[in-house]
Each structure stands twice: as structure tokens, then as C-alpha cells.
Design brief:
The protein is mainly β. It has helices at about 15-30, 130-135, 210-215, 220-225, 265-270; strands at about 5-10, 55-65, 75-90, 90-95, 105-110, 115-125, 145-155, 165-170, 180-190, 195-205, 235-250, 255-265, 280-290.
Length: about 290
């Protein structure tokens, strides 16, 4: 998950999972009541660093507690440099976000009507980097490289106050990436354009055979080199989860985002020898300076 950007990763064994998870959650939510918030896009999970029309840049630090790779029972705390470059014109925003090669996105988003929000773009992801496999105590499985793929996302708001919504996101790329889809429903418990934003999101994910095998499959050759059982997955339902997002501004130039989530994998994903835990807890806290 790391490239030339500054990143430090501390990985621990599974006996620390509950302890570190509790520390991360408590640390995040003790911080939340201290500040004020303002935003233009209606979702706390959507990044907007602009202050009206024109360019906006941001740089900051992201702290994340998560499995070293999807399905691992080994957890780590990772610090990364984060950032974004955005250009806004009315309801349209063009963005380059990530500053880390894993999860870097380039695209466009817009409130096209009062009820519809759209995003289109491309994304870069790394798949099972060697360091992550080592941290997860997996040997004999090679790094599976990286992929650039396209995504399209649409959100429909059921009420004029934009408190209830449904989102669909579809991603597709090269033949060995396949496709994946995510369907979610959400509710904003707090929504104030000069206060704060708190969103609760429930979701399910799906993918085809190529998508499952790229992230969780084990070929015959990999089985021989690693000693793990061969996994040849079919695709279909992948997982379901629940996330909470909290975003707010500190004064006029600092923005924070706190996120916690839990995800449960399907029975088919759990059959993979790479998956040692069918549920995972993630939490993150980012502080961004906007200029």
C-alpha cells in the first residue's frame, strides 16, 4: 500500500486487535466535539476543500487502523501523507485526491440536481503488496501488481433536506480486475452547513470471478509455493458492512475527518486460505490543511 510518499507502518499480532481498536475509536470520538464544521457537498464522506469557485489544495496526515490486507487477522496502524487538488465551478468539482498511490483518484463530482449527486473518475489500487503479505505472515505469494480502473457513482436523496439517500458505485478495469459493485443506504444524523456532518452508511459489495480471484484467490502455483490451499472463487456477493463518517472544519483552513467501520465477508470469501478473519474493524482520522 506504500510508495514514495512518506508512510510509516506498525503491525502487531492479532492479540492486540481489540485493544488497538478500542484505543483508535476512543481517541477519534474524544476529539469530535471540539470544533466547528462547514461544507458544501451534502455527504460527510465526500471530500470538499474548496471555498467557493476556483482551485483549492490541501495537505495533511492520515492515521488508519486496519488489517494489513483484506481478510487478515493481523492489524496495523499506518501514518500517511494525504492531500488533494480540487477545482470548483458552481456545483461541479474536479479532483485529484490521495497523494498515495494506493487509492489515488482523479475525477469529477457534481450535485447535478437537488436530488442527484454523481461522481465519475479513475482510481489506482495496489493488490497484496509484498510488505503487507509479510506483515500478515504470508510467504510464497507474489505481489499481484497494481490496477488502474474506472468508476461511476450515483446518489439519490429521498428528501429535500438530503438526510436519507441511496448510492450505487460500479468499478471496472482490465480483464484480470473484472468488476465490482457497491450498493449503500445512508442517513445523516447531523447536518449543518456552519456546524458539522455525521453520516451512518450501511452497504453491500459484489464482484465477478476475476475480482474475487485477484484479491482472494490462490492459484495452483501459489499453493505449491506458499503451502496454502488453492482457492478458485466464483464471484457474486462479497461482503456487507456499516460505516460512520464525521467531517468538520476547524476555523477556516483545517478540516478533519473521522471514520469507523466494520465489514463482514461472505461464506465464499471466507473459504480462501488468505482470509483468516471473516470480519474486520477499521478506523481512520485525517487532519488536512486547506490553502
Amino acid at each position: 500500500m506504500n510508495n514514495s510518499t512518506t508512510s510509516f507502518n506498525y503491525c502487531n499480532n492479532s492479540s492486540y486487535k481489540n485493544t488497538l481498536g478500542k484505543i483508535a475509536l476512543v481517541s477519534i470520538f474524544m476529539t469530535l466535539p471540539l470544533f466547528t464544521f462547514a461544507k458544501d457537498f451534502p455527504l460527510a464522506s465526500v471530500t470538499d476543500h474548496t471555498k467557493g469557485d476556483g482551485f483549492a489544495q490541501s495537505i495533511g496526515i492520515n492515521l488508519e487502523y486496519s488489517p494489513v490486507f483484506d481478510g487478515s487477522d493481523e492489524y496495523g496502524i499506518e501514518f500517511q501523507v494525504a492531500g488533494a487538488i480540487q477545482f470548483r465551478k458552481g456545483n461541479h468539482l474536479f479532483f485529484l485526491e490521495g497523494f498515495n498511490i494506493d487509492g489515488l483518484e482523479l475525477g469529477w463530482r457534481s450535485m447535478v440536481t437537488n436530488n442527484y449527486f454523481l461522481q465519475l473518475g479513475i482510481r489506482h489500487e495496489t493488490v497484496l503488496p509484498k510488505m503487507d503479505l509479510t506483515d500478515g505472515k504470508i510467504v510464497g505469494i507474489p505481489h499481484r501488481g497494481s490496477t488502474v480502473f474506472g468508476f461511476a457513482e450515483g446518489t439519490y436523496f429521498f428528501d429535500k433536506n438530503e438526510l436519507f439517500w441511496m448510492t450505487g458505485r460500479f468499478s471496472a478495469g482490465p480483464s484480470d480486475f473484472g468488476y465490482r459493485a457497491k450498493v449503500s443506504v445512508g442517513h445523516s444524523f447531523i447536518r449543518s452547513y456552519n456546524g458539522l456532518g455525521l453520516d451512518l452508511v450501511a452497504y453491500s459489495t459484489f464482484g465477478d470471478k476475476e475480482q474475487f480471484d485477484r484479491y482472494f484467490g490462490i492459484s495452483a502455483d501459489e499453493s505449491l509455493s506458499s503451502g496454502l490451499a488453492q482457492s478458485d472463487l466464483d464471484g457474486g456477493y462479497r461482503s456487507s458492512g456499516l460505516e460512520v463518517f464525521y467531517r468538520q472544519n476547524i476555523f477556516t483552513s483545517i478540516q478533519i475527518l473521522a471514520r469507523v467501520g466494520v465489514e463482514l465477508y461472505s461464506d465464499e470469501i471466507e473459504e480462501s486460505a488468505l482470509v483468516s478473519d471473516n470480519s474486520e474493524l477499521t478506523s481512520g482520522f485525517a487532519v488536512m490543511w486547506r490553502f
